[in-house]
Amino acid sequence: MRYAYYPGCSLKSVAVEYDAALKAVCEKLGVTLDEIDDWACCGATPAHAVDRFLSVALPARNLATAQKAGNDVMVACAACYNRMKVANHEIATDGALRKEVNEALGTDYDGGVKVLHLIEVLVNGIGIDKLKERVTKRLDGLKVACYYGCLLLRPPKVMHFDDPENPTSMDRLIEVTGAVPISWEFKTECCGAAMGIARTDIVHKLCGRILSDAKNRGAEMIAVACPLCQSNLDLRQSDVEKDLSREFRLPVLYFVQVLGLALGIDAKSLGLDKLIVDPIPLLTQKGVI
Amino acid sequence: MARIGVFVCHCGENIAATVDVKKVAEEASKMPGVVHAEDYRFMCSDPGQRLIKKAIAEKKLTGVVVATCSPRMHETTFRRAVAEAGLNPYRCEIANLREQCSWVHADRTKATAKAIELTRLIVEKVKRNHDLFPIRVPVTRRALVVGGGIAGIQAALDIANAGHEVILVEKSPSIGGRMAQLSETFPTLDCSQCILTPRMVEVKSHPKIKLYAYSEIEEVSGFVGNFKVKIRQKARYVDAKKCTGCGLCQQKCPTKKVPSEFHELLGTRTAISIPFAQAVPNIPVIDRNSCLFFQKGRCKLCEKVCPAGAILYDQQDQIVEEQVGAVILATGFDVMGVEDFGEYGGGRYKDVITALQFERLLSSSGPTGGKVLRPSDGKEAESVVFLSCIGSRDRSKGVEYCSKICCMYVAKHAMLYKHKNHHGQAYVFYMDVRAAGKGYEEFIRRAVEEEGVVYLRGRVSRIYEQDGKLIVKGADSLSGTQVEIAADIVVLATAVKPKPGIAELAQKFHVSYDAHGFLNELHPKLRPVETASAGVYLAGACQAPKDIPDSVAQASAAASKVLALFSSAELEREPTISVVNEKDCVGCFACEAVCPFGAIERKEVRDKQGNLVKIVSHVNPGICQGCGACVVACRSQCIDVEGFRGEEVFAEIMAL
Questions:
Q1: Which of A90, A117, A144 is the last residue of a domain?
Q2: Interface test mutation site (partner A, options B464, B471, B482, B484, max chain A beta carbons within 10 A)
Q3: What is the pTM for the complete model shown?
């Protein structure tokens, strides 16, 4: 199995542990990742907030490079995944824009490269049954709240990723490890995203709800698929605790870190030491490490 | 020799402002065959018509050309005038100088030249016209009504009370339709069943109505006045003649937990069951899918307890054929399910229900005996939130049209809930309230002002469950705030849509339908109950979302159309239909393949000794609508539409 890998900026900075964990897991599972040559930023939120052309042209540049290499693209950051799929959709449906973008890039890109999220690669590419066979350390009884956030799923007509209101693919992945994905209500609620810079209070409020519902329903850990969700829920957790006068102590792991543990990869290689809410006491208590 | 009269109309200023009408009349008088030409301010007026009649008598005209507005407007007027003067009406034709000339041109000189040309070509056509006579078709004075809801019931009773036989076909085991499921009705809050069931009984006991319940339309052939309909009577596994409706079978049936369709799956029924107490006919049906005997080959308890010996496990579907002259389609509506709305937890939370389900909760004959209890745990509901426009007026998630009835029933639901639970609170999220109808706006004001229902203008983004309550997150756009309400039950006023299978039914009757499946009326304003298929009429929500008063009114309107059709033993139709020249027809039947109405029949041509010479096409004059599709398809050019014969049309073209 071979994919063109687009890490995006986050996985080279605030989310290096996401990058490290997915590489360790992919290596273990025999998935080869070729980092896209000379990739650039996908444009993220700022581009599509100010300039529709750039918001499509930036990801299109990376996609056009990947198309030459000939493999499907694998993305892990939810925002990059979203921007790349939207760019593909826009290029495929808007002939004038496609022309404009290709003129600017000097390419002949048609919007046809398949963009897959890491979850899709694991669940559909490798398959739940195959993954089960590879589990060496079961996380039996660990209660995990799978948190999808907004960007993986919306807009549903473009993303085609799972049921947009009640997604289950990450839950099925976590189930492989023996852990128990809890049934909860905030799987797809917004964490406040980049509002964390301008209006920290709003992010605290939104994250507070997510953390509260997870805790109320017995979660011991939150699994995420987006670097921004991770940092909001993890980095700001102690502030939220102060706001709500309530203790959560909920480690926020990337789903692939949880999977990595079950595949027998060590905590260090999975970058667990990079997390703010330390997962080690919980994992030790559960006998995982 | 043809003697043609040309009459040029000013239409006030409508034509005369752009076209030099005097010049047109002058030029027309020079055309070969024209013996009379004049202009007048309003040809359609009485004095105008008198001019035509006078000229016919004095100049012994053999044809009349009226150069005036579109034939859609006044062709009938002028043909009638011509007939009164003793000329065959089909010898009168219109040259359209208004819609096709004066209204669409500005240059007077050019418009006048065009008007002269238009007149010239119609003159050439009229020279070749010949006498045509209306077609007479016998009428079977019996009506078929498809659908036994309130619309179908009303139409059937109206026709039967006028003395004609009615065949009423209902798909489900009992008539009554949606109205039988409703609790009380807006805007007067009278009990739905109390006003409906007497009508149902009347249908059952009416000597002129033949009821086929638990039956479906299998096949339709024929044409206006002469339809042949095959009806499939589905097997009830109960002998309707022997059954007394005592209900012992359903009392004893061991399979008791089958979700009841009548209760919108909120209550249960037995495998052999009568849908509701006042069902007509009061005869049970065995549901094969849940019956122990049909599934596992044991039980037969109903057969043992039936005192009348009416259980028939080996009963088969039966096909019966009926002949009718007119048809009323009244198949009613369905609503979108809650499953389509994942953001509201539809399908995941038992307490998120449709409005029809809430009707069953409110109904005293419902699964809770009229108490508003949560479907999840049977606890009394302390607060209920109603969401209107769910799927309606929503291009991204549902349909673009307004479902029309929701604003009113939501107000009714909120009100009835408050009547049953004085301490409970009812909230309504709405986009805007559409209450156009007699006493409707007053009803809404009553809900808001007297009954204390809280109306919030805004949409709900999401519903989730927390501590046993449904948290409804929405916006109140009037106060500009976000609101969260903890509800016990959330009622989604989901979009009204046609019944499944309506497309197949419509195709059987050659009735057109829109993108959503609602059946199309012939004209949205002036012919609201007729269809493009002669003799087939519409009533109720199969045409568009409709409330009870509108459905009943439309049903009576459809019935009156049927009664007009039945007013004589013969039907008179326009003779402008296709005719086949049997001498030239080679029997390829290309016409049969293209005819959208099924009007082409096969006819044997025999010589004097009775030997078969050939089989040719024959147009059934009762069915043909004169569309001309067959004319184009005919390889040997032996079909013509009367009034538009090839010879006539070519003469028009050559005159240009």
A1: A117
A2: B464
A3: 0.84
